[in-house]
Amino acid sequence: MADVLAVPAGQVKRNCRIKVYPDGTVGEILACSLATFVPPGWEAVGTKQHVIGGRSGDAASTERARRRAQQRIRDLVLSNSDLDVFWTLTLAPGGPIGRTDYAAVNHKVQQWLADRVRRRGLRYVAVYEYHDRVESDGHRAIHVHGIANHSALRMVDSGRKYQDKLGHWHHIYNLPDWSLGITTAMYLYGDRYAATAYIAKYVRKSERPVGGRWYLHSHNLREPQYDYFDVDFAALPGHEVYVPAARCTYKYIPLSCLHQLTDGG
After folding, report:
1. What is the pTM of this model?
2. Cβ-count burial of 113 within 10 angstroms (0-12 exposed, 13-18 middle, 19+ buried)?
3. What is the Cα–Cα distance from 142 to 228, expressed in whole angstroms?
């Protein structure tokens, strides 16, 4: 067995983390009043892992999980510029799959997605949502929204168009490979961050994650990278969030301050 190099945590941890997307765009600068960020390649040994947060299922922890899911969705979409089509899959009433049966719906959706990942190189991020109307069995039907790369989808013009707030018209397509119900698909337009927020908002449509998951995604997506620094926490501006369980404060630093960090200022 190879020897383990033991280094004090204080020599490894940093108090600032910069998120960088694959195109070089900086997505976030997050600092902490304590040195808490561990650069890749280091692993804690001889200590118990401590999970920060409340009890699973309470309102506060649910909200934290929801925010993390929304941020994760944004990170994945902004890290993969070829995700350029927004789509929705629904199930037809009276079809072979119960519209309110999560296990059955999820099985078919996962099967449909996995087949296209394997055969066509589909890359996607998706979110389940409940219909507003309650079905005859007392439950609400489930449908799924997603963002994917058009090159892996078979899209057919539906003959309909959508007019955005600026008066521009956009073609609406169907995905004929999905045979269990109605489909729509449309190319993303305008500001990409706004388009990303559009799908992330569906995480807020339910009090709890549908089927226990806030979102799903393919495993062939690129991820943001992180750079780590030590900064003067008090000297930098930003929005502060105190975390009682960790007894520290996090600060979201404006991106305009990036030069102060990278120049060593």
Report:
1. 0.84
2. buried
3. 41
